[in-house]
Amino acid sequence: MINVFNAPPEGIQTAPHDMRIIAAGYQVSVREVDLTRVRDKDSLMLALLRGLALTQTFGHNWDALFDVLTDPEARPARFALVLCDYDHFRKRHAKLCAELEAVLLDAQRSATEAGRQLWVLAEEPEGQLRRW
């Protein structure tokens, strides 16, 4: 598998095996968001709050998520957001997933324009390789 950190971030990519070790070698900070228990937008926002280690002042909306992902004070210049159980989440919550993807990809473009890097990585079960 090609190492995603060798190239600029582009869309939602498959997380590499041994991701934390590889990310450390490329000086990429990593945070994981567990989507396993997401039922609706509220539980998604709580999963993001936990995964991104946000404070209770997080606005629990798409604009707030965009802001924390693109804020140079809140995120390192080289940052990877790993979406755990992403494929199942996509299948269970297609509309919610589409909204999340739109925000994540907008944040990725904005980060790139600001000279920063935001990888959005989907953690897949063993043996599945996929690119969105």
UniProtKB/TrEMBL annotation:
What's the family? Answer: Belongs to the barstar family.
Q: Which SUPFAM superfamilies match?
A: Barstar-related
Transmembrane feature ranges: none
Q: Which Gene3D superfamilies match?
A: Barstar-like
Which organism is this protein's natural source?
Answer: Deinococcus puniceus
Residues annotated as domain Barstar (barnase inhibitor): 30-121
> What protein name does the entry list?
Nuclease inhibitor
